[in-house]
Amino acid sequence: MDFTLIVVLVIVLALIFDFTNGFHDTANAMATPIATGAMRPKVAVAVAAVLNLVGAFLSTEVARTVSGGIIKEGDGADSVSITPELIFAGLIGAIVWNLITWLRGLPSSSSHALFGGLIGAAIIGAGFGAVDYGVVVEKVILPALIAPLIAGIVAFAATKIAYAITRREIGKPDGRGGFRYAQIFSSSLVALAHGTNDAQKTMGVITLTLIAGGFQAVGSGPEFWVIAACAMAIAIGTYTGGWRIIRTMGRGLTEVKPAQGFAAETSTAATILASSHLGFALSTTQVASGSVIGSGLGRRGSSVRWGMAGKIALGWVLTLPASAIMGAFAAGLAHIGPIGIILDAVIGAVVIAGIFWWSRREKVSHHNALNINDIDDAGRVVKIRKTPRKPPRQDRKKVAL
Amino acid sequence: MIDWAAFLVVAVASLVAAAIVVSLYAFGLRLMTTAGRIPVVEPAEFTGAITILTQKQAQKEAKRARKAAKANPLSPGQKRLALISAYVCFVLCAGAVLYGVYLVIPALHGGS
Asked: Which domain holds residue B31?
């Protein structure tokens, strides 16, 4: 197979992955401010998109190794060479899993999907020895357990504090609506942090491929066009807004009020910043989900829908193995040769198109993402219209006559 | 080796940071309320699901806030003090958030 062609294919796929990463993660920052009405849905996703774009350019930190040592790439004794074909297969697995979880409205970690896809592809390409399972436990499984726990505890405490400080006697206005202003800033901080982290992964994938293909010097950082393309892809993805996931995060887990929303977003931002500063990155998605649950537990009289939380947790457990299996399948096909890669691309395209077609059967957009149901919505509209309208003058005359 | 201490440090650091930011802002709101400037912020969009508020309810709340502000027992001086303290809280809170932005952008602190 023409080497240049496979490199181009990988770049295209990497950008598609970046796009799915963006719209999968809009909810992390923007579900709660949309839910409490701090920002209009369209404004919120636009702000998140711009901050992701800015964030991608701001961070000069380059993901040196895409897999973070999970796959034994490099020049060591028992290392494996990561070929563009393997990256190609891994990306297909990651994209398909991201789309499946989006269709189900499940917030799941895009990084885990990427790791899973690459692990599956590496196992097929170079055997089970290609993966360092100790690193998998340390960098993927353990943080996945700890991230929502820490974020949940922090958000619980923050919510308690917010309510305790603003508590007044029943019936007296407490000014808690003022938390809506704060939400705009706290959610923006989460979006910015996301932009500085997540676009990096795709830049790393593309740069790795370019280096492997001999188009770029070994050890050099990402080219400017790579940074720009990745920043655009994640921003467009974010603006598209994964409304299904926003629905889950904004109303599926618990009812969110402004004070809770602010507490949850602040906790998300604090936890992500603290962790990435101490050298290990927690998944933004898992931190944000934990925060929302924690804030739900922290407010008196609110309840957490544990059924939904369980579904999300199941999605997290499945993310790594499921994307690994799909990555392995794609790698197996790619092993056949050029025909296999073409088959991969065709099957991938068909699956992606199929998921989008399936998603249109029940459309979720900024119009309906956070409404309980259409009947309820219609009822409210009718109520508002009914009250102020008086019968036109002429009609009244007719009645008088 | 799994670094348990790092997880603990992250937990404590995030807890402290979130507690500081949320407390400052909440105190700011509380002091605004005390000063008789009760912040009533209408939702930008009535999302139906989470905000149970309707336009009418929001207006009612604003009216209630005005009424409560009128019945404020504090002297003008005390009110002014409360208002200034509220602004101080907001500024400190903004400072904490800006520090977060500073941490987000590696270029500002020499990369990591």
From this structure: 4-109
In a domain, A241, yes or no: yes
Nearest to B50 among A151, A155, A255 (CB): A255
Locus of tokens 């790619």: A334
Residue holding tokens 């290609």? A130
| β-bridge partners, A131 | A71
Is A76 within a domain? yes
pLDDT one-digit tens code per residue, A316-330: 889 989 999 999 999
Report residue A113 CA to chain centroid gap.
Answer: 11
Convert the pLDDT of each residue in A134-178 to its tens digit: 777 877 788 888 889 999 999 999 999 998 888 877 767 777 888
Residue B68 to chain A, least CA–CA distance (Å): 7
Distance from the Cα of A214 to chain B's closest Cα (Å) equals 28
What are B77's two structure tokens? 């001086």
CB A166 within 8 A of CB A176: yes
Tally of domains within chain B:
1
Are B32 and A178 a contacting pair at CB < 8 A? Answer: yes
Residue of A176, A198, A254, A299 to mutate, interface with B, max B Cβ within 10 Å: A176
Residues of A in contact with B98 (CB under 8 A): none
Question: What ipTM score was computed for the predicted complex, to two decimals?
Answer: 0.85
Name the closest residue on chain B to residue A256, using Cα atoms.
B50
Are residues A187 and A324 in contact, defined by beta-carbon separation less than 8 angstroms?
Answer: no
Task: Please answer whether residues A242 and A27 qualify as being in contact, where contact means their C-beta atoms are separated by less than 8 angstroms.
Answer: yes
Provide the phi-psi class of A69: left if phi over 0, else alpha when psi is between -120 and 50, else beta: left
The whole-angstrom separation of Cα A243 and Cα A338 is: 37
Query: A151, A290 in Cβ contact below 8 A?
Result: yes
Is the per-residue pLDDT at A95 higher than 90?
A: yes
Give the number of domains in chain A. 1
The three-class DSSP label of residue A131 is strand
End-to-end CA distance of chain B: 22
Query: Can you tell me the distance from the alpha carbon of A97 to that of A315, in angstroms, rounded to the nearest whole number?
Result: 10
Closest partner residue to A36 (CB to CB) among B3, B50, B68 is: B50
pTM of model > 0.90:
no
Residue A295 included in any domain? no
Q: Is residue A328 part of a domain?
A: yes
CB < 8 Å from A in window 4-33 of B: 6-7, 9-11, 13-15, 17-19, 21-23, 25-27, 29-30, 32-33
Q: What angle do CA A208, A210, A211 make, to 5 degrees?
A: 65
